[in-house]
Amino acid sequence: MFDSPLSASAYEILAVAPDVDDDALRRAYRLRLRQTHPDTGGDAAVFVQVQRAWELIGTPEARAAYDRGHGFGDAAPSFAPDAPGWRPPSAPADTRPRARSFGHPGGWRRERYLTLMREWVGRGAPLENPYDPALVRTAPREVRRLLADALAEEATARIVGDLGMGYTVWHDVAADVREPDAKVDHIVLGPSGLYAVLSEDFGGPVRVRRGELIGESVGRGAPVASLVARTRAVARSARVKFSGALVVLPDDDIEAAIVELGKVRGLAVAVVSRSALSTVLRRGVAGAREIGGNELFDVRTRLQQTVRFV
Questions:
Q1: SS3 readout for 202-266
Q2: Segment 260-282, tens digit of pLDDT
Q3: pTM for this model (two decimals)
């Protein structure tokens, strides 16, 4: 919840300054609980964030540890590609066959992030560590957003890679050659069907209303509509039919693990938490057509011949 480049600090969640005294911090916590409690009209996802923030800074010991580590100390998370702050610790070698994967997940957004970060820091001046948490937290939101989405795409790639040899995955697929940033983050083909996947991290709670994502952190964008449009563009180019489209969000940013939106322009769409993605891709989405037999091989061949990467 608090390790995203876009996430608010525990102090920001409780609407207090970092140097607030303990009594004022406690009063602010109680006030935020009342304001966000679902029984009084508050947002359930924000209510959970408030509780988590209190766990992090509610006692002098926890607060001291948080202040040392959150963004500035030795325990701060790192956003570098090979950093343990976002990559799971190494485990015993897994010899099970993995999904076949093509493309570089998060690659386009990481490159764009580095370019904009260098421009923001000093007009091409050497940048010692572009992933330093203290530096990242001070960057403009549009720059941090690129890094957050790159991390989200990389997290999804690790999940779909573990689906097994029955799946094929394409990352960073161009949806419109005229617009470099018009892409589908992931295309996943398996026994449950052919799915377009959008990996997002808005840095805050998200809700679903009338088939679209809303929330303060979402702004005026229309992620679901954009994903569906890009999916249809890829489908026309490759002459394939998608089973559905999925929007993947961090677990803490959506109240329900799986929210099925029904058909959007003829495409079954669902919003899923990151921890539920594997389950959804294995079982499929309600209303989505399955792909099997010779059709699966035909779809894979068509995509291999037509997919272009950003």
A1: CCCCCEEECCEEECCCCCCCCHHHHHHHHHHHHHHHHCCCCCEEEEEECHHHCCCCEEEEEEECC
A2: 999 999 999 999 999 999 999 99
A3: 0.81
